[in-house]
Amino acid sequence: MAEHGREGGLDAPTRHPLNQDDPKFWDEDDLNTELERVYDICHTCRRCVSLCNAFPTLFDLIDDSDTMEVDGVAAADYTKVVDHCYLCDLCYLTKCPYVPPHEWNLDFPHLMLRAKAIKFKKGDTKFRDNIITSTDMVGKMASMPLVNTLVNSGNKSSAVRAALDSGLGIHKDAKLPEYHRKTARMQHAVKIYNLQANSDSGNNATGTEGDPLSRVALFTTCYCNYNEPDIADSVIKVLTHNEVEVSLPAKEHCCGMPKLELGDLTTVRKLKELNVPALYELVSRGYSIIAAVPSCVLMFKQELPLMFPDDETVKTVAAAFHDPFEFLHKLHKAGRLKTDFKQKLGNISYHVACHQRVQNIGPKTKQILELIEDTTVNNIERCSGHDGTYGVKNETLKFANKIAKPIVRQITQQEPDYYGSDCPVAGKHIENNLQTDQETVHPIDLLRYAYGL
After folding, report:
1. Which of 246, 298, 356, 366 has a CA-to-CA distance to 13 between 20 and 30 Å?
2. Within a 10 A sphere around the Cβ of 429, how many other Cβ atoms?
3. What residues have CB less than 8 Å from 424, skipping those under 6 apart?
């Protein structure tokens, strides 16, 4: 530990760039030295034990060692902790008192990301993990006419699921999402941005003369495009009802978050180079950008700027990116959000997604939904444990379900009229753990319903 270190810090957390282009980043001996340092700090603190399974794994390794200290844990076992971290960032934001600018400079998620990156570079990742993090490729294939039928029926077949479990390591009891033949981008193809058709001589190259509350580009995300296009449809209908023009980027690729969590930083860079120029073109013409999956928003708002701190286009796109309810709250503050609601929603149990919490935008979903008469939103600030891939793998599903239990317990006690999460994957994972037929509803779908659209 740092000599004469003070116990915790009161300053606002700051984050350093990932610094993946520094050769030291890829030095495995240096990584293990830093892992030992950080693990020792975590061992003497243990505030994060309730967040996920990474910390119980670490503490069990220490407590079961001969010395009951970090020096008793073999360096080869350090990766057991890394494998349980899915970069939710909650330890950094809500628990750790030693994050920068504290002198101990502890950024647990970024250290785990560095370890994942080195592991991936060494070829120590499973074929399965490379496949299930290729969400855009899988979505394109699974939405093809004949393949679509086979995939959706196979996901419900016990024989196929048993084969996937034994052959690929996808747990036979994990609920896999349905894929749609008519994707969100197909359904709204007329809104796909065309530079010539949308050119506006009234906007200069920086978009300073545009109104960012009047025009939005919807980044549909892999999940909403292929698995739940109704969510994208609700975003479009709610914004259109509020007299906001909605377009889709001419081209869209995965945001890169699944590959980031795998440690595949090369693919993250490639996806950045595919997505950012198209989004920057929209921002330069006065568009705000919205995505209905918090992880995708976080990727553009935080992770890419920390990976590419000197890229001005990345910074510009990050500043224009919004969570849907963050944008709607800006409309409300400007006196431009319509409140002509037709339906009351009653009691809502609302799971606050981890990747939305770490954006530090505040409880915007709750604030907007509670504008509706006779509507009460009860926030649940616990991780769902799914992470997109953690909740489908045969070695981690049981931990994902365990992490979801506090949320399930609160929803059961609240007996809500509706429940859901801004993270649709988290919402489905919670639904799969509830002993009820009540289905999860995305908050933007609830708002659409309240408007009577």
Report:
1. 366
2. 30
3. 223, 224, 227, 228, 231, 292, 293, 440, 442
Burial grade of 159 (CB within 10 A; 0-12, 13-18, 19 or more): exposed
Q: In this structure, what is the dihedral angle of CA atoms 313, 314, 315, 318, given to the nearest 10 degrees?
A: 120
pLDDT band of residue 1 (cuts 50, 70, 90) is very low
Tell me the pLDDT band of 148, cut-offs 50, 70 and 90. Answer: very high
d(CA 281, CA 317): 9
For the packed helices 443-451 and 229-241, what is the interaxial angle rounded to 10 degrees?
A: 50
Contacts of 451 (CB under 8 A, 6+ apart): 237, 238, 241, 338, 340, 341, 342, 343
121/283 Cα distance (integer angstroms) = 34
Structure tokens at 47: 């505030």
User: What's the distance, Cα to Cα, between the start and end of the chain in Å?
Assistant: 58
The DSSP element (H or E) to which 215 belongs, if any, is strand 215-218
Coil, strand or helix: which one is 250? coil
Half-sphere exposure of 438 (CA within 13 A, CB side): 17
3-state class (DSSP) for residue 218: strand
DSSP state of 23: G
pLDDT digits (tens, 9 = 90+) for 233-283: 999 999 999 999 999 999 999 999 999 999 999 999 999 999 999 999 999
Write out the H or E segment, with its range, that includes residue 321: strand 321-322
Nearest to 425 by CA among 387, 382, 380: 387
Question: With contact defined as beta carbons under 8 Å apart, do 237 and 449 qualify?
Answer: no
The backbone region for 421, taken as left when phi is positive above 0, alpha when psi lies in -120 to 50, beta otherwise, is beta
* Pairing state between β 418-421 and 346-351: parallel
Is 182 a residue whose pLDDT tops 70? yes
What mean pLDDT value characterizes the chain? 92
- Dig out the tokens for 359 from the structure: 């954006």
Q: What is the pTM of this model?
A: 0.92
